[in-house]
Write a structure and sequence with these properties.
single chain, 4 helices, 84 residues, alpha+beta, 2 strands
């Protein structure tokens, strides 16, 4: 079951990456007030996802991308991923 979820996350990640990548090929992560917080290279984004082995690591990966887990964001995100 977890492996299926990871595959769904990879599909979601491709969409997310494509929606947020800048002209330099980096993923832009904004803080909760809309300021640019940090950028990730594709290897950082997907390489860390390849290392995920359980839900705790998946949450840590998600928080590294999103910057924070405000008001149940991880749970809401999992629901979004599972719906496609």
């Amino acid at each position: 079951m977890f492996n299926n979820l990871i595959e769904e996350v990879k599909v979601w990640g491709e969409k997310d990456w494509n929606n947020n990548v800048n002209e330099d090929g980096e993923f832009e992560v904004y803080d909760n007030v809309g300021g640019l917080d940090f950028v990730l290279k594709r290897s950082d984004y997907f390489g860390k996802l390849e290392e995920v082995k359980n839900f705790s690591e998946l949450e840590s990966w998600w928080m590294s991308i999103m910057g924070m887990d405000g008001d149940g964001g991880f749970v809401s995100w999992l629901d979004e991923v599972s719906r496609g």
